[in-house]
Amino acid sequence: MAIDSGEFRRVLGHFPTGVMVVTGAGPVGMAIGSFASVSLDPPLVLFCPGKGSGAWQAIQATGSFCANILGEHQQDVCATFASPVDDRFAGIDWSTDVTGSPVLPGCLGHIDCDIEAVLDGGDHDIVVGRVRSLSVNGDDRPLLFFKGGYGRYEEI
Ligand SMILES: Cc1cc2nc3c(=O)[nH]c(=O)nc-3n(C[C@H](O)[C@H](O)[C@H](O)COP(=O)(O)O)c2cc1C
Prior knowledge:
By secondary structure, this protein is mainly β. It has a single domain (18-140), classed as Electron Transport, Fmn-binding Protein, Chain A (Pnp Oxidase, Chain A), CATH 2.30.110.10. It has helices at 5-12, 54-62, 75-80, and strands at residues 17-18, 20-24, 28-32, 35-39, 44-47, 64-69, 95-96, 102-103, 109-121, 124-136, 143-146, 149-152. It starts with a helix and ends with a strand. Bound molecules: flavin mononucleotide. Flavin mononucleotide binds next to β3 and α2.
């Protein structure tokens, strides 16, 4: 059965995700919802950037990345890192951990990785990262993305 792309997006949009900004030395970065924890031993995570993404190509060239977990007050940061602005890092006082990839201020935490493998995922790549360093950096609530819009986490 052929899958309609609009229907694919609509149905998959019913699965909520958190939002990361994945960065690389440069600095370069992009908003990512397709992030997941993979393995504890060895410590592996993954994300799926579009094969045509210029940010991803620049990150791949560095061999490392840092995944920054966005908080509910960082909708503007998410929008910046998903849009074609000249300098996504303008006005951001970023730092680095071990890989040299930018650690963004005001995030819930970051996961600093070397690129372990890049697998074929159709029109996206599946990037497996080996965790080199990670920390919790704040106690904000996470920014969530659901049905094409932003939301916040609520305990039940
Ligand atoms: C909430 C959210 C989640 C996103 N998740 C992804 C993703 O998982 N993979 C991807 O390739 N793009 C994702 N994007 C889109 C990229 O951030 C966007 O295409 C960005 O412009 C890519 O940077 P580039 O054009 O400089 O390569 C997401 C955007 C938003 C707002």
